[in-house]
Amino acid sequence: MDGVATGFIVLMIALGGISAFVADILGYKIGKKRLSLWHIRPKYIARGSVTITGMLIPLITVLLLAASSAEFRTWVTRGRKAVQELKQKEEEVQAKNTLLRKTNRSLKSSQDLLLTNKKRQDELNKTLEEKKKEAEAQSSRADQLKKTIDTQQGQLGRLSQAVNRAEASIKKFQTESASFRKESAAARKTLDSTKQLLAKEQTSLKEIRSSLVAADAAKTQALSDYNSLNARNLEIQKNNDELTKNLNELRTQLPSLIAQIETMKGDRDNAKGDLTDLLHQIEDQTNVLERVRKENSTYAAFSRTSAPMFSKGEELARIIVPSSLTTDEARNLLRSLVRSARTAAAGKGALPDPDYPFPGEAGLLRVVNRLEIPQSEVEDFWIKQITPSSATRVLVARSTVNRFVGEPVTLDLAFYPNPIVFQEGDIIAEGRVDGRNSDISVFGEIRDFVRTYVNAKAKRVKMIPFQGRDGETFGELDPGQLLSTIRTIRSTDRLLRLQAVARKDTRAGDKLEFDLVVR
Q1: Crossing angle of helices 3-33/42-68, nearest 10°?
Q2: Percent helix, percent strand, percent coil in the chain, to nearest 5
Q3: Which of 121, 325, 373, 490 could form a disulfide with 329 if both were Cys (CB 3.0 to 4.6 A apart)?
Q4: How far apart are CA 502 and CA 516, in angstroms?
């Protein structure tokens, strides 16, 4: 449980005790002075002063805590939003987890795409290198072909010059003598062979030129492929740069997302702790509600038409519990208390029900985790509460809920300390009474004296009140003594002092018996 909440509860319990103590003293002093304001009776002034004092002390305490502690203010203002905040935190954590999973998937797909692009880039680079080598080979071949063409052209020029010289020689020697005709024929044969060789060289030159054109075309295509591959490589490199940038951004965001998720997990754990406390409280209240609902379900229709018999918290019986009892003694004492309660319940119209968890007109019922405990275990439970005590106590049996005529009564037990609070002859309270008033007025003053002063002193010394339908009482005044006291007061015909004196030694669980003394 939160320390602030625990401290607040402890502080409020302590302040409740302080408020009761201060209010009792203040009410006693104000009532004793019999102050009157605006024609208001003194008893109402005393009650108002006690009430205002009891209200101011917790109010000032809460204000001081709220002013001095930010955690207290947060606890007061945000306590009801624990479940909503937990739900919101869980939704945020789920959203962050979904975003993280999407981010991881995107990161993985980006990495896969990056690896694929790298593979494609390597393949393109390999193809580009091959194309470069082919282009270099085509360029080298073209250079070789150019050199061959230049060589063939040089040979063709030399052959053309030889043909021209041969033709000139033929023309020159045609005019010469026949002795040179054989030589001319031989020269013609040489010329024909030379022309044939020239034709072959021209054909070879045409082939070389066509090869050169094809080589140029191949070189141009290779350069075009190289440029396209280079463009694709640049595009892939650009995509890789963008993917790398996105990957770096995602990696940069990943620690912050993880930190946010961890923070939200911590908030979720804290909210779960608050929710667990709230659920435990709800479960406790549900158990009580289930017990009351189960007790009332059988008699709901009947109760609306029958007269009320016992109200919730009304006392049926009480018994003194001595110290250091054995188990058998505690069992007998508990059964004696239950028998007394059954007698009181039967006297007001309670009837047993064979279908109810306990026999008789009144009995013990205990529900834990929405399950009824058997009657034997209920008895053992209360016996364990009785036996370990080393001091005298009072065990009081009260009605758990409102009961009606014809129903069995479920009992709720409570322990109280039982010390001696008044000794014989102690003055319990003191007040004023006017003998000049009428008998009815004197009776009202005595009644107010008992209710205001005597009961207040009994509460202050922690006597155990008898809880009835008309409220709390600590005892009854003897009617004969009351009439005798009224006659004594009226006979004086003056203002007197009235005292309540303890008749005998009185413990906290006893009925308050006192004598009225006029002075």
Answers
A1: 160
A2: 70, 15, 20
A3: 325
A4: 9
CA–CA separation, 211 and 255 (whole Å): 65
The CATH number for 94-287, chosen from 3.40.960, 1.20.120, 1.10.287, 3.30.450, is 1.10.287
Q: What is the pLDDT of residues 95-143, one digit of tens each?
A: 888 888 888 787 787 778 778 877 877 787 787 777 778 777 777 776 7
Q: Is 236 helix (H, G, I), strand (E, B) or coil?
A: helix
Alpha-carbon distances, residue 198 vs 149, 192, 206, 465 (angstroms): 14, 9, 12, 148
Dmax of the chain from CA atoms?
206
Q: In what order do the strands lie in the sheet with 514-518?
A: 427-434, 495-502, 514-518
Taking Cα atoms as reference points, which of 433, 328, 451 lies closest to residue 43? 451
Where residue 313 falls (left for φ over 0; alpha for ψ -120 to 50; beta otherwise) is left
89 and 67 in contact (C-beta within 8 Å)? no
Neighbours of 260 (CB within 10 A): 15
CA atoms within 13 A on the CB side of 97: 10
CB burial of residue 399 (10 Å; 0-12, 13-18, 19+): buried
Residue among 6, 10, 15 nearest 75 (CA): 6
| CA gap 403, 103 in Å, rounded | 65
For 476-485, how does the pLDDT look when each residue is reduced to its tens digit (9 = 90+)? 778 888 888 8
The CA-atom distances, in angstroms, between 13 and each of 10, 58, 72, 432 are 5, 10, 17, 35
Tokens 């804290």 belong to which residue?
270
Look at the alpha carbons of 372, 375, 378, 380 in this order and tell me if their dihedral is positive or negative: negative
On the 0-12 / 13-18 / 19+ scale of CB atoms within 10 A, 23 is buried
Domain boundaries, the chain: 1-68, 94-287, 308-417, 427-518
Q: For residues 463 and 471, is the Cβ–Cβ distance under 8 A? A: no
427-434/495-502 β-pairing: antiparallel
Residue type, 120: R
C-alpha 293: how far from chain center: 30
Half-sphere CA count of 482, side-chain side, radius 13 A: 15
* CA angle in degrees (0–180, nearest 5) for 113-114-119: 95
CA–CA distance, 381 with 341 (Å, rounded to integer): 19
- CA nearest to 103, candidates 262, 236, 268, 255: 255
At 354-389, the pLDDT tens digits run 767 777 778 787 655 555 667 777 888 888 888 877
